Amino acid sequence: MKLGISGQALGEVMSFADIVKLGKKYGVTEYEIWPCNAGADWDYREGSLDDVKKTARDEGVHICCVTLGAGFSAEAAADPGRYAEYLLHAVDAAAELGAPVVNHYCGAVNPGTQPDFNVLEQYWRAPLERAGKLGIIMALENEAHDCTSTPEKMRRILEYFNHPNFKTNFDAVNYFHASCEGFPGAYKALRPFIGYVHLKNACLYDPQAGQPDENRGEPMSGLYAPAPIQYTPIPEGAVNIPALLTSLERDGEYTGVCTLEPHTTPEHVEEFYAKESAWLRSLGFFRNQESGRDTAC
């Protein structure tokens, strides 16, 4: 597996070329892009991939994932046909960039707490058929406040679509956000379906602990609601990320990129990258990536 960086965290304040230069300081050669990295709002076809392709070529890096964030927007998801076009264009962008994965979301697509498969068919079936033809994985990311909030709900969706190109972006901390056991519980439930991985960490909010305001997130769902989640650098959080990575490497079913996704303000993002990448490598994960060689955790 390799370590990646998401272009979202700095995408509104920094060009993609500068994000890559920053990431390479920490030995990262894999990058997840968002529409903002291509000069678009929701639709990749309204932006341009030329600069992304040129940067990747000139810097010798790889686009590991194309993300469509439109699933968070009620406006973008209001019309199923239009949203399906956005997702189709993201799949096409992944094929053009050589990215094996499209990451997408469910929140405004199916805003209820249970999946409505008649609705999901309208939004996802046509893009999934295109992804299958192009060899792209559509990875659905779990979020704490929609019908993907628990491992059981996510598995229901994955088993319903029952397609080799429909998998999940496994984010253990998003399950923690939903008051679920991100590891080992969620991992055990979803292990055969993992098509991408996001890495971050968090803990419970403690109003007496002086936790940084800039790392505070949205309210928890489930048992710990309505207290906010408190994001942390990976070494300082409640979720056992090293054990997750050890299990991924041992089980061998997922051998792709594990992408850092710090949840903080832009001015603190590099602090997270520096601390997290150094700590993970000190534990033996991703050690060979800095020299350009493939690595298992």
TrEMBL record:
Among Gene3D superfamilies, the record links this protein to: Divalent-metal-dependent TIM barrel enzymes
Which keywords, in A-to-Z order, does the entry hold? Isomerase
Q: Extract the InterPro entries matched here.
A: IolE/XylAMocC-like, Xyl_isomerase-like_sf, Xyl_isomerase-like_TIM-brl
Does the record bear Disulfide bond in its keywords? no
The segment(s) forming the Xylose isomerase-like TIM barrel domain are: 22-282
Keyword Ribonucleoprotein found: no
- Molecular-function GO terms, alphabetical: isomerase activity
The record's section on Pfam families has: AP_endonuc_2 (PF01261)
What is the name listed in the Swiss-Prot or TrEMBL entry for this protein? Sugar phosphate isomerase/epimerase
